[in-house]
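Q: My hope is that you can spare some time for a protein that puzzles me. Underneath my words sits a plain record pairing an amino acid chain with its backbone structure tokens. Those tokens are not coordinates but codes from a learned vocabulary of shapes. Thank you; the sequence and its tokens follow:
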Amino acid sequence: MAWYGRLKTRKDTFLIEIGELSFFTFRFFKDLFKYPFEFKELARQCYILGNRSLVLVCITGFIIGLVLTLQTRPTLMEFGAVSWMPSMVSISIVREIGPIITALVCAGRIGSGIGAELGSMRVTEQIDAMEVSGTNPFKYLVVTRVLAITLMLPLLVIIGDAVALFGSFIVENTKGNVSFTLYFNQVFDAIEFGDLMPATIKTFFFGLAIGLVGCYKGYYCKKGTAGVGAAANSAVVVASLLLFVIDFIAVFITDIFFDL
């Protein structure tokens, strides 16, 4: 019966974690509109989180565009449908591949960074010192970071999509001698409102999930310096799983309202 005890303990821990994260989310929205507003810290976090992730997102997007086109082109050539390559790649990247891959990259880069940073501040009692000095650490540390990643992730996704399409164009230009104008004319002809709008809206929820999980894991970090690594690691794992859940819900809702 030892396995049953361990299973029950893990179930209880999971439910407690969901409850605490829900309360953490409620507290974020409550403090979001509460004075004072930390605009200077928000701007700094937007620059840090967005600028430091830009190169990684661009490299990832460029490689995705190259690989997707190289892998798909031979199959389309067999059916004589290689002219559909720009349309197929653009819809695939804009609808699904671009947002989810960029969000996963940011979950690993930003989520772990936030978890480790706030975890270190908790372990070294910097957060406690802020509370004693009269500063609201939740407002200054958590709200600004969550809001920053929520605002920055859609921009990173748009840039990543553009770079991925450019990588796809390079393959098409090299293999099929397709011009820049022809390729991107087909890309923009294929993309519709029902492709672009839902994909952009769900990136805000991706950013919110990454920020909340990273801040939650770091803000309540325990067990000394060993807990900092655990907080960073669990932030990436939980945020990644949450991204897939949000993505499924977004696709399900999109299928109902945009494919009537």
Q: What stands out?
A: Residues 39-78 form the longest helix (40 residues). The radius of gyration is 21 Å.
